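Researcher: Here's a chain I'd like modeled. Treat it as a single chain, no partners, no ligands.
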Amino acid sequence: MKRTSLTLSILLLILFAGGVKAHNLENLSPKHEHLLSECTPEADPLGYKPLYKKPPRYPRKAQQRGIEGTVLVEFTINKDGSVHNPTVAWSSSTDPKNPDTFNKSALIAAKQFRYQPALSESGQPMETKGVLNQITFLIEGRENSLNLGKHNKQFDNLTARLNLKGREKSLKKIEKILLESNLSRLQRAAYLYLKAMYLYKDKSPHSQITDLLLESKKNYLEEKLTLPIGKGVMSVTGYKLQSFAGILLGQMYLEESDWNSAALELEAALRAAREATLQSKRFFSAYIQLGMAHYNLQNWCEASSSWRAAQKMGKKHGFSFPDALKEPMEFSQSKSN
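Model: Modeled as a single isolated chain. Structure tokens:
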């Protein structure tokens, strides 16, 4: 089978118009950041592995008020695989007055986690200190919603007008808001992303859209807290923004045939979505685009792995994998074996 480049014509075939959950993310260290784990060697075959991690209880009042949040729990894994002394290393909620809304629920859940303990070189169970586990609390059905405080209603209204005719007035409104000096970093990042979406709908030059998305990225990444281990954590809204804006930025690079930048941005966006345990239909096309970027970079394992992730997501949401990509997927699989 002959390898061919995947071009914009194929990309255009896959672009789409327009309950309560609490999840865990294990091992928040740089060596575990790989999005496509099957394409990287196991970090530590003797390391600990999770066996049982029941999602925590969602606080009723937070659920009723639509509050979401993230809690980073630190603890020790004993030799028998039980958890000892869990503490809150960092927490955030969409209720700025109560950032510790989910702390109690997260700690109760962490105490019940069970692991296969780490092993010494002689095969003996070992205690592991400083284990970090991120627990995200999301309201089902709000995966695509951003919490921007007093700007919620205005932002939602402007987002709803994105697919309507006569968008010029709404675009001017966004530009006026961006002139306000009292916007938070996340609010500014959100409006920059929304402006980029408006320009994309109007088929504005890629350079204008990319510049807006890069400025948005600068703002939402400034909210990220870097831990001593070198890993960054953000609020739920920050993770959502990074995933949404990052996917569009990756698409811009893809349409310009900048495969490396496209792969970097799409991986960062999808990693943010994974870290926030976000589940959205929009990630189907993002994984396809990531596969296209890696294919053109001749990263065969990453290409086929991305497309397998898209196929799995497509089955869940009722999307068909593009026929035009079936042959390139077979080729990448044959090259990665």
